[in-house]
Amino acid sequence: MAVEVAELWETLKQAEPLPPPVQMGEVSEEELRQYDGSDPKKPLLMAIKGQIYDVSQSRMFYGPGGPYALFAGKDASRALAKMSFEPQDLTGDISGLGPFELDALQDWEYKFMSKYVKVGTVKKTVPVEDGNTASTAAPETSETAPTAPATEEKPREVAVEEVKEKEAAAAEGAKES
């Protein structure tokens, strides 16, 4: 085992350093597929919630032959949220996911944000009235919450200070009564 580790260390020391990540800007899902690791001269990219990350430094995981190679060149949000390797889950569509899956996806997003450089966003195509498609970029913020279905009322975000003020006012009102 020690010999294998030593050989691996020597191989890693001889490897060329990775080029700095290149900002891609807004790219289509089709363009993103070109960065799946099949061309060793191109960076290895992967997206979560429409945000594209350069995962070249982890080629042993996301590159060809790696355990997560099927995620490379794609927005793998649904697959990561469901911890799935099924082809139908290799999509950025997170509609219909439950709270535990969304929490798992958030954990993955935080991991990617802390470990990899964000290099762009995935341009989404959405149907429009006349049957054609229009492109929209994924939101720039990674704090985007999933959209609640139209039948549910989305809770309003409240600042801690606002809650404290209301509690103080309620306590004051109780004292006066």
TrEMBL record:
Keyword Repeat recorded: no
Compositional bias (Basic and acidic residues): 151-177
Provide one Gene Ontology cellular component: endoplasmic reticulum
Q: Which SMART domains match?
A: Cyt-b5 (SM01117)
Keywords noted in UniProt:
Cell membrane, Lipid-binding, Membrane, Signal-anchor, Steroid-binding, Transmembrane, Transmembrane helix
Looking at the record, the residues that make up the Cytochrome b5 heme-binding domain are 27-123
* PANTHER family the record matches: MEMBRANE STEROID-BINDING PROTEIN 2, MEMBRANE-ASSOCIATED PROGESTERONE RECEPTOR COMPONENT-RELATED
UniProt similarity note: Belongs to the cytochrome b5 family. MAPR subfamily.
Say which species the protein is native to.
Panicum virgatum (Blackwell switchgrass)
**What GO molecular-function term can you cite, just one?**
steroid binding
Membrane: is it a keyword of this entry?
A: yes
Annotated membrane topology:
Single-pass type II membrane protein
What phylogenetic lineage does the species belong to? Eukaryota, Viridiplantae, Streptophyta, Embryophyta, Tracheophyta
Q: Please state what the protein is called.
A: Cytochrome b5 heme-binding domain-containing protein
Q: Where is the major localization of this protein?
A: membrane
